[in-house]
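User: Sorry, what's this?
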Amino acid sequence: MDEKELINRVKNSFRAKKSRAEVLTNFQKRGYKLEYADKLISKAKHSKKITTLFFLTILVVFCIAFGSYSLFDKHQKGLSNPLSIITGNTIATHQNTPQQELTIDQIEITPEFISYLLNKMDAGKLHKNPFNFEKPIINFKIGDKNFYSEIGRETKTYKGLSQKADLQFNANKEDLVRAIISNNPLDVLKQSLTSGKTQAEIFASEAELFSKGYLQFYNLLK
């Protein structure tokens, strides 16, 4: 019988509530030296400690990820809408003082717009990968304007596109603005995706998307 099988037998003996002395006695009856039997018992117990430590580590990692999500969600609820709908084709923007009415074409998309939209799209359900701690990153391509958002305790949006993005939305400006001012931006985005005015490109693997919580986020857009 090889050593690995003997160690497994020791583990089974301990699971059966046998004492160390009983296990040693059984080895001696089978002709094994006491020193060797004691070595096998030590290895069996060491293996059990490693397994326990592994599962404790996984538990701690997921607790940290959940805590980060909770803090992020509380912060995001405090974001204010950069736009509010008026009537017809004009929109009021709070970015100017005094408040001005602009057409959609006159509005300049800024990183704050994207962060607010992600908040309304429940991006707070996303979180860091609990194994490598990489943040969810989403690219937005709106005409000739490019942005990418990193989602952690808060959403930070920057100009340009990230090479590390998990996915990318290629959207038209009108639908993006209407999503921001809508009470239900997901409906606006779904309609835009269905009509083909907006496309979604996925770059990350299924495992990576799952580890960052994209499954629930994706279901909202279906």
User: Anything to note?
Assistant: Strands lie at 83-85, 90-93, 100-103, 137-142, 145-151, 155-159, 167-171, 199-202. The helical segments are 3-15, 20-29, 34-76, 111-120, 173-181, 185-195, 206-211, 214-221.
